[in-house]
Hints:
The complex is a heterodimer. By secondary structure, chain A is α+β, with helices and mostly antiparallel strands. Chain A has three helices and five strands; from the N terminus they run αββββαβα. In chain A, the strands form two sheets. Chain A has a three-stranded mixed beta sheet with strand order 3-4-5, with helices on one face. A two-stranded antiparallel sheet of chain A has the order 1-2. In chain A, a hairpin with a 2-residue loop joins strand 3 (29-35) and strand 4 (38-43). The radius of gyration of chain A is 13 Å and the shape is globular. The termini of chain A are far apart. Chain B is mainly alpha-helical. Chain B is 82% helix and 0% strand. In chain B, helix 6 runs parallel beside helix 8. Chain B is globular, with a radius of gyration of 19 Å. In chain B, 55% of the residues are buried.
Amino acid sequence: MSDNATVYRALKDVVDPEVGLNIVDLGLVYRVEIEQGAIAVLMTMTSPACPFGQSLAERAEAAVRRAFPAVDNVSVTLTHDPPWNPAMMSVEGKRILGIP
Amino acid sequence: MPYPYRIPLLALGMISLLLGLWSGLLRLGFDIPAPQPALPGLHGPLMIGGFLGTVIGLERAVALGRPWGYAAPLLSGTGSMLMLITGREREAAALITLASAVMVIIFAIQLSRHFTSYMITMAAGSAAWLAGNLLWLGGGVVSEFVLWWAAFLTLTIAGERLELSRLLGHSKKALALFGAAAAVFVAGVFLQSAAPAAGARLAGGGMILLAFWFWRHDIALVTVRQSGLTRFIAVCLLLGYGWLAAGGALALTAADWLPGPRYDAILHCVFLGFVFSMIFGHAPIIFPAIIGKPVVYTPWFYLHLAVLNISLAPRIAGDLAGGDSLVTHSGAVNAAAILLFLANTVTGIVRGVMRKS
């Protein structure tokens, strides 16, 4: 498994409990960059009014650190650009929620 | 604001809740000491302004991510403590009114960036809180502004649920129906100022429409088929909508809007059945967001939810049938349910800390 795939696999352990979906299938993970011993994740929340952003970002960082214990430089940044919309969910996420 | 600095603000909210419960037991007629002679009369302000206003204010401040946003929970929490110490409402009402003004400003900023139906709904909730607080500050009697406080909580919850439920994709027709239901409710709250009974009936109709809208469109209908905490949250929501509908039905068929048993039943359907069912479902998520510590869910959480819902039914029945003893004893069990919720939540936090270490 590539490092990139390992990061996404780790992020799938971070579940939004209100929805029962992980942040990857929810479409909240915008970008993963791995270069020279540093892992950077860019993610969003379903709404800018959501107070759980910091908490979810911390859980995402912890998940990546568990998957890459030798990497010191792990960062997770929150953005609302572009704003999230339901179309960003994965096929699996939509299947679980019963959305066509 | 770093997590540790938020804990004193949360503590102000929790103290307000505990003293609000104590106040409720005094009002039910229990012969227990009153740390503040005026405590029985402070039940509503403590529970709504002191507890819910502070915790929701904290939530909004965290979402905004700006230090000045924490002025809202600081003002409402401080106002609540002032009320407890002095026994007077006026100065506390001023501080809590300011808190709601800060919350309105928070939403004005968020609306300017994200003009969406859910943000409008939540912003309307904060405006309703401000309106109710201004009437309270102006010396109005509780029955004249309590529906504004109900609108604060109902619209805040409705907006949050609308935001989450958009994952399922709402048709324009569904959104229009939501808007219509919310409009009927808000129209009733406005009308109540001029024509109390008619306004309460219209607001009651709006509550029923909102409850049915959410029973049809909330994502809880999907997530209730999942497991663990996700299912628990869904069960809380679906039960809560039942109490909103019940309160609405009682209001819709009320002959008047005056303090008394039916009025008490309506308020407790909404504030206790609906709002606290929502709190029970929301707490395992919002506490970690505020204090940075996870709340480990266990099936024991169903116990406090069950105790609340099973004890509320006889309380409401007692109100409607003139059974004072039933109201008194059921009310005590309602309070016990909330204390059990706090105990289960603290236990969940301790479990989370122990797991991490």
